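User: Assemble these into one structure.

Assistant: Restating your components, then the assembled model:
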Amino acid sequence: MDAIKNITTRSSARELIEPHPSAQEMETVFKAALRAPDHAWLKPSRFIQISGNGRNKLSQIFIKTAHELNKELTETQILKYTEAPFRAPMIIILISNYKEHPKVPPIEQIISTGCAGQNILLALNALGYGGMWRTGTFAFNEVISKHLGLEKSAQVIGYIYAGTRTGKNKKIPIHDVKDYVDVWE
Ligand SMILES: Cc1cc2nc3c(=O)[nH]c(=O)nc-3n(C[C@H](O)[C@H](O)[C@H](O)COP(=O)(O)O)c2cc1C
């Protein structure tokens, strides 16, 4: 796919079904992720790729985390969190693992992992798959980091749900660039 068209026509896919990208396709997706801009090449980004039965493991981790965060979970919340990993055939957890450096503060390293996330969405789109970035209860908190077995310096910055698009494609909004850009010349 033309590179500019891939960027300007990407949209998030709420409904995702099998098939998910193959191992070989995911190698390409992660190569794209690892070409995100990265000050001092600290390589803060880490990923967990989950599919098949791995989603049961994630589901259990979500429930354990939710119970620890909130002792009074409702039945509806328990069901929602249990089923969350099954909204797509594949989930990529985006993790930013802060590396101490005199010139690269935590925010820059989180932004770098954010760029890696966008590269993942674009690579999925170029390969014909859909994706959607989600956060919510299980991002940016130490309890989920603990249950995922992450280092103390690492945090979850999001979940990319991936697979084959289904359902209606939403209309991509047309933006008037002038509303967002000041040009100085
Ligand atoms: C950091 C980040 C976190 C997000 N978290 C959620 C989320 O938890 N739930 C959700 O419905 N959309 C979330 N979104 C938005 C969607 O991924 C998506 O970008 C949005 O629906 C707009 O669709 P588009 O990407 O097709 O323009 C998040 C986006 C970003 C960048």
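The domain at 3-167 is CATH 3.40.109.10 (NADH Oxidase).
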